[in-house]
Structures are given as structure tokens and as C-alpha cells.
């Protein structure tokens, strides 16, 4: 039996005067996973997030939340860390965190108990009685992350959660997100430009560009699809000799690295669809000195850039 998704966004359209921000967007976010919402600036990610948090509504289409139409009543089950940070600077850190927890319907005693645990976990326990104005950017961000997760939401929306962190604190927050997924079953929607975090955290992604979903699916499947038969080869000799040797048997896509002192080069190649890499490698080893051969594994950054650039080039008038 097919599981009901945490979010089912179907043919969502949104316009602001003459600008169409979303053009029939379809996104399905499975329960208990970490879903990456990716795209260049202006792609429509923020507009979509604002719909999910009740700030705005679609002009057309539908959004369901765990099988029922999304309404403002569901907001209590959603945690949201916006990209635009905002805390009341004149309040003390602990009192402000308690204030937001009580706005979420939590009792003060339970809220304080959970806050103490989270403050210790993210190493902000010494700031409870300090004013928010004294917090560094990264420390304030950790406090806002805690506020977003404290009420144990079913859906957690994180918009650029790692910007402003040093590597150590960024990893602490990543670990906290993984723990929420694994121990509480929290569904996470992650909007970020940090492709390293996407590879580390996300099960699935959707890539938006100019208000449309241009790529979506499991991270591992998208990376394999983007490989497109490409592999890297390291050899000794000259590029000219190698180009002559391979002839039309393989496509030389790019020279990745050259070490002229030892005459070694690393290149990216693609065989024809009917080509067999093992047979080809056996043959080319008789023509040139092969040092190493490995399948190319594109990063999510490679997938992101290549997909957007291909989309842009295909949409240009001829």
C-alpha cells in the first residue's frame, strides 16, 4: 500500500502582478525523510515555502499535509527556520525562547525542560540569561533553530540553515537534523545552496528554475543519471597522441588535469551507448599507457549547475 506523503504539492501556480513565480509546480515529500528544495535565486523556492507556512496562498493548485488539505490549523505542526533571522534584541535569550514556545501552545515548565536539553546539546547553555543583542550571528542562529524544533513538529522547514556557521557548528546542526529524522521521524524540507549538505542529508530533492520543477528524485539516482556514461582516465603521453589513438571510439569531453613533468594527464571521456568500457579499456591499453580508470561520480553541485545551464540554453531563442 502506498504511503501518504507528508506534503503533496500539485499544479501550484502563483503570480505577483506580471511575474509568475510558480508555474504548475508538482512536489511530493515523503514522510520521515529529508527533502532538498533546490534552485538558483529567483527560482520560486521562497514563494513555495511561504505557502507551506501560511504566509500566502496559491492562485491555483493544491497542497496537502499528511493526506488532508493544508490549512492554517496545521501551522502548529510545522517548525520553520526562515532565511531572514529575527529575534527581539532587548529580551533575554531564555525568556525569548520560552515566549516562542508558549506561542506554540507549550506549557512553560515542559518548554523550559526541553530548552535546557537543546541549549546543552548545541552549546548555548551559558547564554540563558544574556540579552539577545549579545549573541553572535551563529549563536543567534542556533537559538532560532532550537525554537523551530522545540515543539517537535511533524514537518520542519529549514531555509539556508547553515549559512553563518563555522564548520564545527554547521556539523552540530546537521547532526541534530539527522537525529530528528531518525529518532522522532520528523519530515524535513531543506532549502539550501550548500550542495555538500544536500549530499550528506537529503534522501530526495526537487530542483526549481524559473518557477518550474526541472529535476526531481532520489539523490543517488540523480547523480547516477547525471554521470551519463562518463568516466575519467589517467594516462602517460601527450594529449595529441591520445586524441589520435581514441579516434571515434570515445568522446573526449574535458582535460581535467595535466602533470607535464611526468607526462601524465587526466581526462573525462564518454563511450558511445553501445560501448563496453571493459573491452574498450583493454583495447586502449595497447595504444597508450593507462595509469588509472574510474567511473565519474558527479556531485550534486555538478548536477545542479549542469541541469540549470542546459535548461537555460534550451530556452534561449535560436
Query: How would you write the strand order of the largest sheet?
Result: 6-7-8-3-9-10
State the end-to-end CA separation: 47 Å
Q: What is the chain-wise order of helices and strands?
A: EEEHEEEHHHEHEHEEHEHEEHEH
CATH fold field value of the largest domain: Rossmann fold
Beta-strand share of residues: 25-35%
Q: What Rg is obtained from the alpha carbons, in whole angstroms? A: 24 Å
Please give the CATH class of the largest domain: Alpha Beta
Total beta-strand segments: 14
Overview of the structural elements:
A hairpin with a 4-residue loop joins strand 12 and strand 13. The protein has 318 residues and is of the alpha/beta class. The protein folds into 2 domains: 7-224, 3-Layer(aba) Sandwich (Rossmann fold); 230-295, 2-Layer Sandwich (Alpha-Beta Plaits), CATH 3.30.70. The protein has helices at 45-52, 93-103, 108-121, 137-149, 167-184, 195-201, 219-227, 239-246, 277-284, 300-315, and strands at residues 7-16, 19-29, 34-38, 60-65, 68-69, 78-81, 155-159, 187-191, 204-209, 212-218, 230-236, 250-259, 264-271, 289-295. Helix 2 (93-103) packs across helix 3 and helix 2 runs parallel beside helix 4.
Amino acid at each position: 500500500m502506498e504511503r501518504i506523503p507528508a506534503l503533496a504539492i500539485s499544479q501550484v501556480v502563483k503570480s505577483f502582478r506580471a511575474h509568475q513565480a510558480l508555474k504548475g509546480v508538482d512536489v511530493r515529500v515523503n514522510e520521515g525523510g529529508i527533502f532538498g528544495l533546490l534552485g538558483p535565486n529567483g527560482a520560486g523556492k521562497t514563494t513555495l515555502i511561504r505557502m507551506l507556512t501560511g504566509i500566502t496562498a496559491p492562485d491555483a493548485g493544491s497542497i496537502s499535509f499528511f493526506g488532508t488539505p493544508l490549512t492554517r490549523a496545521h501551522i502548529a505542526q510545522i517548525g520553520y527556520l526562515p532565511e531572514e533571522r529575527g529575534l527581539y534584541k532587548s529580551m533575554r535569550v531564555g525568556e525569548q525562547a520560552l515566549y516562542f514556545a508558549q506561542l506554540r501552545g507549550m506549557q512553560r515548565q515542559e518548554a523550559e525542560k526541553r530548552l535546557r536539553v537543546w541549549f546543552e546539546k548545541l552549546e548555548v547553555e551559558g547564554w540563558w540569561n544574556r540579552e539577545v543583542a549579545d549573541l553572535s550571528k551563529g549563536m543567534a542562529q542556533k537559538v532560532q533553530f532550537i525554537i523551530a524544533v522545540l515543539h517537535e513538529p511533524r514537518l520542519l522547514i529549514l531555509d539556508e540553515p547553515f549559512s553563518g556557521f563555522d564548520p564545527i557548528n554547521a556539523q552540530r546542526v546537521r547532526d541534530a537534523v539527522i537525529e530528528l529524522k531518525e529518532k522522532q521521524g520528523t519530515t524535513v524540507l531543506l532549502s539550501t545552496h550548500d550542495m555538500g549538505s544536500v549530499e550528506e542529508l537529503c534522501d530526495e530533492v526537487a530542483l526549481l528554475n524559473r518557477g518550474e520543477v526541472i529535476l526531481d528524485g532520489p539523490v543517488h539516482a540523480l547523480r547516477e543519471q547525471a554521470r551519463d556514461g562518463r568516466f575519467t582516465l589517467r594516462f602517460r603521453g601527450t594529449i595529441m597522441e591520445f586524441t589520435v589513438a581514441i579516434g571515434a571510439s570515445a568522446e573526449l569531453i574535458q582535460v581535467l588535469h595535466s602533470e607535464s613533468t611526468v607526462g601524465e594527464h587526466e581526462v573525462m571521456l564518454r563511450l558511445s551507448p553501445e560501448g563496453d568500457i571493459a573491452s574498450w579499456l583493454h583495447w586502449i591499453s595497447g595504444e597508450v599507457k593507462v595509469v588509472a580508470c574510474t567511473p565519474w561520480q558527479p556531485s550534486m553541485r555538478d548536477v545542479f549547475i549542469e541541469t540549470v545551464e542546459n535548461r537555460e540554453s534550451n530556452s534561449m531563442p535560436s
